[in-house]
């Protein structure tokens, strides 16, 4: 039975790979992100290749008015699965050297953006007495590491929000899953390092990180369990990584 999957941050990385995988499996999509051209070309490609419905909503998750009006513009307001994936790290400095601009970007996107989108979608799921919210946390939400400070704080917030959602939504048949990936090679490090591609590549030197497709397969997997089962919290890393601190580099 096809479901409708709402994915934030579908223009790149985990979100894009998830959109492809859900479409391959015959599900309808609502995809979002800020880069309109990428969003629309992905929507066209998925519609034609997989014969599924794909609606693209171009908005910035940091702008609550834009979130609300994008979701209000949907003809069909049914969402079976929400994947709160849009997010970023910006900067990799000691806390005393951090920039306010980087901090605000991360807090506004990873915490407030996730809340804005959830606030708009939860009433639809509550009304249906079913749904699945998948929040993309991180190993950075399990341990704080050197230079990670505010990014780690935002992902610790995702951890707390996921636990809270699970408790508060308990009476409504809504699953809440947090997925916490370790290092995966996407555009993440390029964004974190403000476009320094050479430095970004070095993050993955000497070991095999996960790919976007690896993480998408885990996201897809948690949606395939029987109705009465929910994976609440899942940490996934490549074999070379034990946690935020230990990576086996050759
Ligand atoms: P990418 O940079 O490849 O993708 C990030 C996505 O988020 C893009 O589609 C981007 O779209 C979207 N996004 C960022 N800011 C906004 C915004 N303000 N409004 C709307 N969309 C936004 O990174 P990943 O795929 O790796 O990251 C996805 C999630 O996974 C993030 O939450 C990240 O923190 C988390 N994560 C990543 C890990 C990694 O090692 N890669 C590990 C653990 C967690 P656009 O720019 O078009 O708006
Ligand atoms: C992304 C993984 O290790 O850079 O959340 O924090 S890490």
Describe this structure in words.
The protein is of the alpha/beta class. The chain has one domain: NAD(P)-binding Rossmann-like Domain (Rossmann fold), CATH 3.40.50.720. The chain is built from 8 helices and 7 strands; from the N terminus they run βαβαβαβαβαβαααβ. 2-hydroxyethylsulfonic acid binds at residues 138-140, 148, 182-183, 244.
Low-pLDDT windows of residues: none
Number of helices: 8
> Using DSSP, what is the number of strands?
7
Structural class: alpha/beta
Give the CATH topology: Rossmann fold
CATH superfamily grouping? NAD(P)-binding Rossmann-like Domain
Assembly category: single chain
Query: How much is the average pLDDT?
Result: 98
Helix percent band: 40-55%
| CATH class annotation | Alpha Beta
CATH architecture: 3-Layer(aba) Sandwich
Break the fold down into its secondary structure elements and pairings.
Elements: E1 4-7, H1 13-24, E2 28-33, H2 36-50, E3 54-58, H3 64-72, E4 81-84, H4 100-128, E5 131-136, H5 149-168, E6 174-181, H6 188-192, H7 197-202, H8 212-222, E7 233-236
Parallel strand pairs: 1-2, 1-4, 2-3, 4-5, 5-6, 6-7
The chain binds NADPH dihydro-nicotinamide-adenine-dinucleotide phosphate and 2-hydroxyethylsulfonic acid.
The site of 2-hydroxyethylsulfonic acid has 7 residues, from loops.
Distinctive features:
7 strands, alpha/beta, 250 residues, seven-stranded parallel beta sheet, Rossmann fold, binds 2-hydroxyethylsulfonic acid
